[in-house]
Amino acid sequence: MVDVKGLFLIMDHGGIIEKIVNYGVNIPLQRGSFLNILDTACHEKASRFINEIRNKKAAYDWEMNLKNLEMYHFSGFSDGERIYVAGSPEREGMIKIYRAVEIDAPWRGGLTPSKKADVNIELFNELTRLNNELSAARRELLKKNTELERTLKEKEMLLREINHRVKNNLMIISSLLNLQSRYVKDLDDLMLFKEAQAKARSMALLHERLYRSGKHKRVEFGEYLRGLLKDLYYSFTHEKKLKLETHIDDAELDINTVVPLVLILNELFTNAVKHAFPGESEGTVSVSFKRMNGTYRLEFKDDGVGLPEGFDWETSSTMGMRIIKSLAEQLNANLNVKSDNGTCFSIEFRDWKG
């Protein structure tokens, strides 16, 4: 027995089935109209299929669904008295069906051997041609897929190397700023050095995560944010008695969303250290990041002295507020600022879509 799945039908010219040879088809098959074994959506197409066999003596590779909605390839021919149809889930399976029928020969009373050879030869040749074309197309597709996979791996390796080098360069900049800051005596100038060093370290940490994850475009922001805040806390608060509280959800964000958020956090943290807790003031800095319904909210709060009386953050031209507002606009985020027993910055945004 030939290893094949499908069916072979002998029909009259009206499309009424006279005999069915079933090779593992899992729906009930019985004599009647050819249309009865097909999904109703394919009935019109099946009628055109039968007409083409009647008019042109053969029809090659028509795709139609059985009643169970499994897609089959059908081919058929006519000897002038009957219509013979083979159907299989695979195109090359139709050739196997005809060969199986040759072995089983349930139709030998309908055609003489010579007539059978005459009507089959064109169909076999056409199906063989189609099968050869399909095999060639598959080989070409496999070749292109192999080339694409190689190109993708090369691109991933390049991106990993870029992230690694960017991280190393940023850490070098941070180290140079740290060395130089040892010779700075003015406290305001020293704070500028620390701010620049913090920004470089934050970006280095980001590229390090990209390098290690291998994702290159997506960052697990919750995990990154926890590490970033610890780094900022130990960089700026060793001379102040400040506490850090965090309430951070896990979420994967696009790199184009993360970069502005990181720069905003750097600015907010350094501003809080410089202005919210003057002298040796004690207090608490609280940061929360929450996932909501399709959006995210980042809040930065302190219980320090609050904004100066009469200060309007929306019209302020101070460097810090200009940077924060500009970055929030880059995110298309809603920025709100409240000053009541401290200061609270709230940023609501959506993830960047590339």
Automatic annotation (TrEMBL):
Reaction equations catalysed: ATP + protein L-histidine = ADP + protein N-phospho-L-histidine
GO molecular function: protein histidine kinase activity
Domain Histidine kinase: 161-353
UniProt keyword annotation of Transmembrane helix present: no
Keywords from the UniProt entry: ATP-binding, Coiled coil, Kinase, Nucleotide-binding, Phosphoprotein, Transferase
Keyword ATP-binding applies: yes
Coiled-coil segments on the chain, per record: 120-165
EC number per UniProt: 2.7.13.3
PANTHER family from the UniProt entry: ETHYLENE RESPONSE SENSOR PROTEIN, TWO-COMPONENT SYSTEM SENSOR PROTEIN
Protein name: histidine kinase
Species this protein is from: Methanothermobacter wolfeii
Lineage: Archaea, Methanobacteriati, Methanobacteriota, Methanomada group, Methanobacteria
